[in-house]
Amino acid sequence: MIGRLGAIPDRDRTTFRVWAPAAKKVEVRVGGETHPLAPEGDGAHAGVLSAAPGEDYVFVLDGDRALPDPCSRCQPKGLLGTSRIVELPAARRLGLSLDDLVVYELHVGTFSAEGTFDGVVPHLGGLRELGVTAIELMPVATFPGARGWGYDGVYAYAPHPVYGGPEGLARLVAAAHAEGLGVILDVVYNHLGPGSEALTAFGPYLSEEIETFWGPGLDFSRAGVREWAIQNALLWVEDYGIDGLRVDAVGAVRDRSSRHVFAELADRVHATAPRALVVAETSVDDDRPLDEWGHDARWADGLHHALHAALTGEREGYYAPFGSVDAVAAELGRRPPEPHVVCAQDHDQVGNRALGDRLAPDALRVASSVVLFSAQTPLLFMGEEYGESNPFLFFTDHVSPATAAAAREGRKREFAAWSAFSDADVPDPQDEQTFLRSRLSRREVPGVRERYRRLLALRRNLPRDVRTEVQGRTLTMRRGPATLVADFDARTVELDA
Asked: Are 433 and 110 in contact (CB under 8 A)?
């Protein structure tokens, strides 16, 4: 097995290890001096040198190409800069249980005026008081430019410098734990973002035979690529004390190995941190993560789709199979309920709309009440708990003009076939104003926060069993002594508890 990748400090000495099967000679340049690394097998090269945390370094391939570390823990100057040796304070994990999990998804760059890890901290106490038990961060790996959703990460081990880098993330995790909140991190192993040429120069990370919506897929039949992903997952739970991982778009990964990479990932995460959760994002009826890979939970988008279609009448794209209240009841009946993470809104279901628009207040009242009263694991999207009106748009900051142009045109093509958006002026994702418009306003709608607080307090004392009854366009839900009646035509909710 390939040893721990990256730069691993131990007092005043650091072990450097990189997977570079394509190179005949690999060196590391640190402190103004270049040192050779020795081949270890399986394409890995390693060496132990006198180097301390805070020093910058690069790997040199075949004597002339200096590049950042594919497993860099810190890229202080972004994609094109040098890597930095990092040593973090000892971290502890809070540990999470699906029995009482209430997830709050947020985007670091738009959650606060500061747009940093530290900017999240002052709001943690309010989330805990609301009834949230864990925050979920959209991806924080270093990506092109200063602003983006994070799903185009290139340096998967290095928290984005604009957000505050590794030290900032460590402070946020410690502060969340001090408030009694767990931390879940969104991780992306299905593709690499623009600028990944610096990684693929080291070896064949990508496969020409695996195509995803975002470009070539990763080749997990190769030991070094497999370790790149699994060791990244371990980094978050070991070095940062992260309590859970949300694995993005697992259905886009093709792995012909005898043991699927995401099964091995879950095994090794659980061996290191038995109470850490591995949560998969997958398609509506894909239960492989639960049935075959040993994951703890999965995003269950079916309930969102059913609620949205029934409340708005939209039936295009993935809403086509939905629209009836019976479909809502069917999604509420998934068993066991705890491993299914459900929502009224999330970053995809808001941000992947042409105008980033959230549900209308009366529709959100019905959808969120059903989600919070359900027996499944609820997820809130930042701002919904007080009626945030600002959109959450798709925004990027690609450095390459060609990539920027492709992002603009791709965004327009994506909505050309949707009648609801065909005449819309799709915002330019590269325009900084698109990003700024997506920041939370924190303008509260009276009564919304209190409704969320009441429902979250109530669900803690109800049995997991939920019974549903549909009469026309009205859904009745019963959990123990409590009853919720949702009228999808009038968009009203009555709670008897």
From this structure: no
100-104-105 Cα angle (round to 5): 140
| Residue 287 among the catalytic residues | no
Per-residue tens of pLDDT for the chain, all 497 residues: 899 999 999 988 999 999 999 899 999 999 999 999 999 999 999 999 999 999 999 999 999 999 999 999 999 999 989 999 999 999 999 989 999 999 999 999 999 999 999 999 999 999 999 999 999 999 999 999 999 999 999 999 999 999 999 999 999 999 999 999 999 999 999 999 998 999 999 999 988 777 777 778 899 999 999 999 999 999 999 999 999 999 999 999 999 899 999 999 999 999 999 999 999 999 999 999 999 999 999 999 999 999 999 999 999 888 999 999 999 999 999 999 999 999 999 999 999 898 999 999 999 999 999 999 999 999 999 999 999 999 999 999 988 887 777 777 767 666 666 666 655 678 999 999 999 999 999 999 999 999 999 999 999 999 999 999 999 999 999 999 999 999 999 999 999 99
Q: Is the dihedral of CA 15, 18, 23, 28 positive or negative?
A: negative
Catalytic annotation, pick one of 243, 264, 281, 331: 281
User: What tokens appear for 333 in the block?
Assistant: 């009946």
Give the CATH class of 6-84: mainly beta
User: From the candidates 27, 248, 264, 385, which is the catalytic residue?
Assistant: 248
Which amino acid does the sequence have at 353?
R
For the chain, domain boundaries: 6-84, 103-466
- Asked if domains 6-84 and 103-466 share a fold, the reply is no
Residue 261, sorted as left (phi over 0), alpha (psi -120 to 50) or beta, turns out to be alpha
> How do strand 38-41 and strand 482-487 relate by DSSP bridges?
unpaired
CA angle 265/45/25 to nearest 5° reads 140
pTM over 0.90, yes/no: yes
**Token representation of residue 285:** 């009826």
Residue 5 has a CB neighbour count (10 Å cut-off) of 22
Residue 120 contacts by C-beta under 8 Å, 6 or more apart in sequence?
106, 108, 111, 112, 135, 172
Residues 6+ apart with CB under 8 A from 221: 255, 256, 257
Q: Domain 103-466 is in which class?
A: alpha beta
Active site (annotated) includes residue 409: no
